[in-house]
Fold:
Amino acid sequence: MDGFDLVDVEVTHESAPDLLDSLGTETSVGDHISSVQATRIQAGQPDTELQSLPQLDEESVKLLEHQVDAAYRALFEMDGKALLADEVGLGKTIEVGMILKEMHFRETDGSVLVMTPAQLAKQWQGELREKFGLEFVCNYDDEFDGFDAHDHIIASIDTAKSDRHRKTVLKRDWDVLVLDEAHYVKNEETDRYDLIDRLTYTYAFFLTATPIQNELTDLYNVVSLLRPGLFGTRDAFHHYFVNSSQETLVNRNELQERLGEVMIRNRRAETDIDFTDRTIDTRTFEPTPKERELYEAVSEYVKNAYSQDQGQKLVLMLLQKEVVSSPVALKETIEKRMDDQSELTHTAELQTILDLIDEVETVTKQERLLDIVEEARENVEMGRVIVFTQFRATQREVLERLAAEGYTVHAFHGGHSSSEKEQIVEEFEEEGGILVSTDAMSEGRNLQFCNIMVNMDLPWNPMRVEQRIGRVHRIGQKRDVFIFNMALQDTVEEYVLDRLYHKIDLFQQSIGELSSILSRLEESGSSFEDEIFERLVHANSEADLENDFDAMAVDLEEQQELADKLEEFNDGVFQGFDLGATDD
Amino acid sequence: MTDAAIPITQTAVEQFTRQYLSAVGCRIDADGERWDITVPETTETDVVSGNLTLWCTRDVENDDGGIPLHSESDFFQRLLTEAQDRTLTGRLKLDAEAGDVDMPSWLSGGAVEVADVEFFPVYDRTAVVFLFEVSIETVSEYQREFLQPVAVDTRSQEPLAGLEKRFLDVTSLGTEFEGASQVKTDPDEISTLLEASQDIVENRIQPEIDETLDDASRVADVEVEEFRQLQEQRIEELEAERETLTEQIEELSSQADDADADERITILKERRELNAERENIEDELSDLRRRRDQGFPEKQREIRNRHALNVRVSPVTVTEIVYEQGEAEVKLVDGQQSSTLTVGYGSGVGLTEDVTCAGCEESLGEHRPVQHVQNGPRCEECS
Structure:
């Protein structure tokens, strides 16, 4: 990599007078060979075996080869500073557990700080305790007395960066830092990034399934936190690795080589894990005439309002998503906006929509959901089903309806505290029944004990869909997994499902594969969601809309073909690193 | 590049300890992790005396006075130091019996197989193998250390790569040699060979040096850039401060115009103070700008000096090796065809002369393996 001045090198050949003086000494060959052997052993690396492995309870944790390998490499080949970037569901937490166990065994874990998103802190604590016998205090525990009061702490990154704790966190020299969901610190302008940048630590292990979320800069930022200078200056990095005119990669081999010093990425396809089968059952339902009328009214409203004021995009997008989730979700948003006298225009039209909502007597998706859960109650252990929706209002209504029908129900959403969430998952496991969850469940939490999932509505972000699936279809899932997608006919949801998600085989993909498909598509700056919305509001007719979605599907297919080719290339050259496009 | 270091596994620790203690005359009665050592009075070692019990584990409960044996145990470290200091120079002889006759893999290829090899030693030759300890150090990288063997023929000073490999084999754990071991080559000659070997080792480690140099330079560059940005930020701050002061001074000047005599004196005094402050800022600004325009040479130098690489190469053992030079008769078989090749060979050294293709007369090797043997060895193109 050019663009920098080389520092000086001084090579010193040390003389060895004692060595030369001993040349005439008479001795035995055996003695000399012992000396050579001792010299070779002295120069050897300290025992690079995972010595703590035999101490692990096989009942509590079943280690897989790629996990042991990752822990070994992170500790011994990367000098204890590594980015663990396995695809989702391959057990990055287990890898870190092994690393921490080994460090505990070697007594190099004097002070350890594990930083996670808030909702995962308790789960980390539980896993490290149950699987590895490692005791950590969590910032949500009653006995937590601050970052200077304990040596082994699990905390949410936002607690650590808060004004109350920041100073104490930064004051300490940590032996080990673990950062879960490291892509949260990819933006160098945030307080989170600043906190990690200023932390002092000897060993660090960062975890993410999506090292490149949007652009190569993400990778630069995360890697530079871990190994400052590995990629040189930001400018030099961009200049050297990115062809700015085409926004493609150059000098890929060198990038891969450098990444290899710090990043470990296992892919599902390369591991020997026998994942259970995944069956997708997409059910499209004819909406009632009133639901149809409501859908058309909302779509028309969104289209008109957007053409007049693009500043309302997010709210309008929300309405368009809510109308296919449940009328009650839509109603709540519209009423709130009208009460707030927010920027929504055309209040008369909105009032009409509210009237239409009131006229909807049968909510088709909810009725059909009953078919699925009833089938599960009869055929699946403890009738466990997890139902995902994006909206709290939908969640409430579904919960009420299911409870009224006599089902055991559990609610999970972002409003619960971490310990409450922990409790909810435990109860769901013990009592069975139906867990209705928002996407607050999406990251990190494991629900392998459940094998049926229903997408009551579908996020327009495919990554989020895969994250939902990843909660149940991961290592430890012993049964085949069934995913039910619910959609209303001739709605945006059906287009997204049929024309887009099925085209890219979303429901059989993993995030690693998906990201390579999406990264190029999103290079233009607009997200997948934006693309969908823009097509929806700009179509002049049904036929136009279908054509637009078909065009997007063709784009996706092209990206997929490119991604497939790239993956083939990666397999040979990149040893599994997923770096997006290249023009080398 | 071969690193001669032996990984310090528990198996290696136990194997070396057993071998060394036996060599100095101790008896070992092993029962699982427990080793009872009987040490005769005549034993030539300071590490053990009397009888003792070793425990091959880290978690030893020392109720019975047992000594832990593992890579970091004090006992093992002392044992290692004693063994290492015993005799760092020595001589050994590699004859044909000391190992099989090794043929390179390129002598067979396609359907060709090496059916038989016979070695006919003609005379002895001498080589010297130096083990060099190499360390590459810089502030931003972990220190890299490795052991590098270099074997050179005493007469020709040519490097003998095959012999280096053989040397590592015979000095790996579990090998046994007997007999006297006094280096016979003249010390001055050894010194000359050492100098030649130092050049060889420096060339070999150059890729590692270059790689570390790139890494260190890149880190230094980031540090320089961060410093530059910090100074840019300081310049902007100073400019803003100067701007504010200028406004305040102008404001005071207009106030002074309208003020009465007493007030005027106070205002002018205040203005003088602000002027002085502004001058200080201007001085600092111009100094910063000047240094920026020059590229902060002192800071750059300081940063780059701090990141400079320090490479140390030290010879740690010298082994004179006597090997047999002669000819090997190699019988190559290709289906029904066979051919016998006679080629220069040294025990432990391997082939000592080129084998050429009977067709094109180009040298055969990894890049051009033997593919057929009809009328002599032939490469693929000449088959």
Chain A has a mean pLDDT of 82.
